[in-house]
Design a protein that fits this description.
The protein is α/β, with parallel strands linked by helices. The chain contains 15 helices and 14 strands. Helix 2 packs parallel to helix 3, helix 8 crosses helix 13 and helix 11 crosses helix 14.
Length: 417
């Protein structure tokens, strides 16, 4: 197959959408498919274009057998709702002509990743010109998130944005997204006019696995053997609600056996670290290199997964896959009937968003019960191996791509999940 991947983020971005799209491209080329990628230069999660790339120029390269075209993008120094829209629009505009020129290559499938939704328009136009199948994969419902999280507050724009979103999504041959609750939301947005299916983010359980011995990070960071490590590792932005970890760490200052480790990057990293001044049971690190990720995730006695209540089922945190594969329990701040709540209840504890007292109680409950931590860790690992294994999910995706090519052009298939 000739597969054109279109999206804002791509490898070598270490976390989030870029990580998954990069792994997908590498897997597809290894299977013998021809893959081209139209994307932006790497900038996430630091919101700064990486060294060796320019935000103003087109750039071609080959990565793991895939031909990659980087398109110019404006990256704001300070991220606000309005600036984020302009940021996404800049990529949609700069990538429009390169997408239309893909007619010369004639891909079989155009696979677009949201965000950005605005980028779905060049993807649709490209698919129509090439006679290709169009597939939209939703990693975040960015329109819902922008208004529900208060990033945008202009009511007339809200109605217009939702109308445009519905119009665009219904024009794709297929729509997929990363959780069952998000599939339900996609079905409502498409009105049943487009096939919607589940395509979750994955984890390589051969690379992320429980260590038989203590993580070397414990000694490197000077953490005592008997300490309980509460770990957060990932991007730090508006959707995570990370203030609750700082407040909980303050509430546990009198109990020195609890050590909080915060590792990441993103638009909120500096403000959070500054706000943590004086919290002596907390250590801050940058994102750790991929080759040390398994050792780092194994540093945790308990993983922390905070989420804002108003972000429920708009996103599915990609960091959760590694947490589960590492065989450590997870404490999530989420309502129990959300997708995060449903998954984490199999492998940890779920507490209400925003409740410092209940998060503290959950930490102490697991901290005082090593047997329960072990039991939940085994459940976490089993779920990752049974449901989120990379090879299995990508083979299933490949079959769906072939199925999309085989279906009649005007067919509207039954929805699957």
């Amino acid at each position: 197959m000739r597969i054109l991947l279109y999206g804002l983020n791509f490898t070598p971005e270490p976390v989030g959408i870029g990580k998954y799209t990069g792994e997908m491209a590498r897997w597809l080329t290894a299977r013998g498919h021809q893959v081209k990628v139209v994307c932006a230069p790497p900038y996430y999660p630091d919101w700064r274009v990486a060294d060796g790339y320019s935000p103003y120029a087109y750039h071609r390269e080959t990565i793991d057998g895939a031909e990659v075209l980087r398109c110019p993008i404006w990256v704001p120094r300070r991220v606000t709702g309005a600036r984020r829209v302009l940021h996404l629009l800049s990529f949609a505009l700069s990538s429009l002509l390169p997408m239309l020129l893909q007619r010369r290559w004639r891909p079989d499938v155009v696979f677009a990743v949201e965000p950005p939704l605005l980028g779905a328009v060049p993807a649709l136009l490209c698919a129509r010109l090439c006679g290709a199948r169009s597939w939209l994969h939703v990693q975040d419902f960015e329109v819902d998130a922008a208004f529900d999280l208060g990033l945008l507050n202009f009511a007339p724009l809200r109605h217009l944005a939702y109308g445009i979103e519905r119009l665009i999504m219904r024009r794709f041959d297929r729509v997929s997204t990363i959780s069952e609750k998000m599939v339900e939301r996609a079905l409502k947005k498409t009105g049943g006019e487009t096939q919607c299916e589940l395509f979750p983010n994955w984890v390589d359980t051969k690379q992320i696995y429980p260590l038989a011995e203590p993580s070397p990070y414990r000694a490197e960071l000077g953490i005592p053997d008997d300490a309980i490590v509460l770990l957060y590792s990932g991007s730090m932005g508006e959707k995570q609600g990370l203030d609750i970890i700082l407040d909980t760490a303050r509430a546990l200052l009198a109990e020195p056996r609890y050590r909080f480790v915060m590792a990441g990057s993103g638009s909120g990293f500096r403000a959070l670290r500054d706000a943590a001044a004086g919290i002596d049971n907390m250590q801050w690190l940058p994102l750790q290199p991929a080759e040390r990720l398994n050792a780092f995730l194994n540093l945790a006695d308990v993983h922390l997964l905070p989420q804002r209540a108003d972000a429920a089922d708009l996103v599915m945190p990609s960091k959760l896959t590694g947490m589960l594969a590492s065989g450590r329990p997870v404490i999530a701040t989420a309502h129990p009937d959300t997708q995060v709540g449903v998954v984490v209840r199999r492998a940890g504890l779920v507490v209400p968003p925003g409740s410092v007292s209940e998060l503290r109680d959950a930490i102490e409950h697991l901290g005082n019960n090593a047997e329960l931590r072990t039991q939940l860790g085994h459940s976490a690992r089993a779920y990752a191996c049974d449901v989120l294994e990379r090879e299995s999910l990508l083979k299933g995706f490949e079959l769906e791509l072939l199925s999309a090519l085989a279906a009649p052009t005007d067919a509207v298939a039954d929805t699957v999940a």
